[in-house]
Amino acid sequence: MIALRERAIVSPQSVPSLPKHVRIQYDPVRQTFAVLSPEKVFWPNDISLDILRRCDGRSTVGHIIAGLAADYDAEQEAVAADVIAFLQEWSDKLLVKL
Amino acid sequence: MSEPPLPPIGMLAELTHRCPLQCPYCSNPLELLKANRELDTQSWLDLFSQAADLGVLQVHLSGGEPTLRRDLEQLIAGLSARGVYTNLITAGVGIADGRIEAFAEAGLDHLQLSFQGARPATTERIGNHRGSHEKKLETSRRARAAGLPLTINAPIHRHNIEEVPEFIDLALSLGAERLEIANVQYAGWALTNRDQLMPERAAVDRQAEIVEAARERLTGVMNIDFVTPDYFAIYPKPCMGGWARDAFMVTPDGTVLPCHAAQTIPSLSFERFGPRSLAAIWTDSPAFNAFRGTDWMQEPCRNCERREIDWGGCRCQAMAIAGDAAATDPACEKSPIHARMAMLIDEAQRAATVPSKDEPFVYRRIGVVTEPA
């Protein structure tokens, strides 16, 4: 069996980014943002979009959580659980790089 | 149709029917178009521009072998300039030096490379092309070196279904992000070769277990898309996501179709881009409206709770097996002729046990195959 890569697990220290084959794009026809990936187009809600936009390859997950908690005036712990779960799901689908 | 259709998301552009391979399950029609019937560069660019205006976000550049088009770089650049996500679907054989790099520079987003087998002998036999496996490996290396994300596409049938574990290892070793284990759909050339291609039931069951386990094991490492074999199914696939619902395809001469095999439905006639705009064809063409939504459905589809999940399944399969394009896809267990699928599997098994001739397949062939310069 060949195992050249391993599943990445999200931690507060992870620095997420969008891989080359994934991009966020405004769709003028539908007047909303789309996430384009091989074979699939996603229509993220506002919060998902906000998380994905912060996956800039510089910010840590901890930093992203703190920023979102401040912007949405929410408890950091509640935000943390949601953001980590979201990023793990997207990482597992290879739509976010950690 | 009371409401106007939603804009399409995806478009499959069959740039050419020319191909160096002769796979006996090709989804192209039996009547292949020669090079002199292909749209020219400007027509494709106009079509792509209209597609972007209409709402298309992804274009899959396919064929035949799309890299035989010498203007492919230009076509990719045109799409890229409009922000359209481009996916090149290639057999990866006979691509001249430097071109993959040029595709990447033109803005190509993703490359999908087919392997007819995980073993060189299988690849060469199925595509009827000596040396093809090694050329594909080279194409995948070049794609990765050019920074292109990679999907490996493995069309599965009786002659390579036992290689599924090896396909998984091959895709991993090539650094692919995605692997498609795509059981052959019996339309086009595959319908002609159905008896030769149909896998055995036990092999289909084993395959499902292997893919399921690999998906689990490779979570976060490689995505595996599993296109299951229709004839062994309980429910049909939502073919094209529903007829003329969010995707369409275009043949090399610019004929706009709701799906690959739509031309096998004799009651429909299809229009070409050029004489009519893409928007007019998408919205008003009687062929596109024939099976759009759910109004056209008969029982058992009409009152089925799954009618907006699978959209009645495949119209062309209904045509081919039930003889009625508006019938329930016989892959569905609710179809009154669902049992015919099992009979066709059994017939294929019996035919396959008859000692075969030297060439068991009707290989896909076009008059003359042009190699790239």
Q: Could you walk me through the main structural features you see in this protein, from its secondary elements to its overall organization?
A:
The complex is a heterodimer of chains A (98) and B (373). With 98 residues, chain A is α+β, with helices and mostly antiparallel strands. Chain A has 3 helices and 3 strands. Chain A has a 3-stranded antiparallel sheet, covered by helices on one side. The model of chain A has no long low-confidence stretch (mean pLDDT 93). Helix content of chain B is 35%, strand content 12%. With 373 residues, chain B is an alpha/beta fold. Chain B is built from 14 helices and 9 strands. In chain B, strand 1, helix 1 and strand 2 form a beta-alpha-beta unit. Classes of the chains: A alpha+beta (98), B alpha/beta (373). Chains A and B meet through strand 1 of A and helix 6 of B.
Descriptive labels:
heterodimer, A: 98 residues, alpha+beta, three-stranded antiparallel β-sheet, 3 helices, globular, B: 373 residues, alpha/beta, nine-stranded mixed β-sheet, 14 helices, disordered C terminus
Topology pattern of chain A, helix = H, strand = E: EEEHHH
- Measured as a percent range, the helix fraction of chain A is 25-40%
Care to count the β-strands of chain B?
9
Largest sheet of chain B: 9 strands, mixed
Tell me the Rg of chain B in angstroms. Answer: 20 Å
User: Which value, in Å, is the CA radius of gyration of chain A?
Assistant: 14 Å
Question: What is the beta-strand fraction of chain A?
Answer: 5-15%
Largest interface: A-B, 25 and 29 residues
Main pleated-sheet profile of chain A:
3 strands, antiparallel
Distance between the termini of chain A: 24 Å
The chain-level structural class of chain B is: alpha/beta
Any idea what the shape of chain B is?
globular
Strand % of chain B is 5-15%
Order of helices and strands of chain B: EHEHEHEHHEHEHHHEEEHHHHH
What shape does the CA trace of chain A take? Answer: globular
| Neighbour order of strands in the largest sheet of chain A | 1-2-3
Biggest sheet strand order of chain B reads: 7-6-5-4-3-2-1-8-9
Low-confidence stretches of chain B: 368-373
On the 0 to 100 scale, the average pLDDT of chain A is 93
Q: Give the helix level of chain B as a range of percent.
A: 25-40%
Oligomeric state of the chains present here: heterodimer
